[in-house]
Design goal:
The protein has one domain. It is built from four helices and five strands, in the order E-E-E-H-E-H-H-H-E. The protein is globular. A five-stranded antiparallel β-sheet has the order 4-3-2-1-5. The longest helix has 11 residues. The chain has 107 residues and is of the alpha+beta class. Helices cover 25% and strands 27% of the residues. The mean pLDDT is 92.
Length: 107
């Protein structure tokens, strides 16, 4: 299993994981849900304690990935398979992203 912390403005809000069977989960942290100022990260992820599950990488996270020549350059430089979207997300969505959401790999 590979997993990552999901942060909003540097505050940890949840965990995204790719399970051994190839499915994906996203779950908000209970400590985040307990915060009265907590906001959902997307309309597709309303605040709830139950995990979201999908056979595919959630579109919200997939759309954080680079495309075209930037994708090719990232994959070449980091030796990542161009079809491995989850690893690309873990390796590239920590610092240089548009918006308030960042992804930090859990080692």
């Amino acid at each position: 299993m590979k997993s990552a912390k999901i942060l909003r403005n540097a505050q940890e809000v949840g965990v995204l994981a790719k399970l051994d069977d190839g499915t994906y989960t996203f779950q908000y942290l209970q400590t985040y849900l307990d915060n009265p100022q907590a906001k959902n990260i997307s309309v597709n992820f309303p605040l709830q304690p139950e995990a979201f599950k999908s056979k595919y990488l959630f579109a919200f996270f997939f759309n954080m990935l680079s495309e075209g020549n930037v994708k090719k350059a990232q994959c070449r430089n980091m030796r990542i398979d161009e079809d491995d979207s989850f690893t690309r997300l873990l390796k590239t969505a920590k610092d240089d992203v548009v918006g308030s959401i960042t992804v930090e790999e859990i080692l």
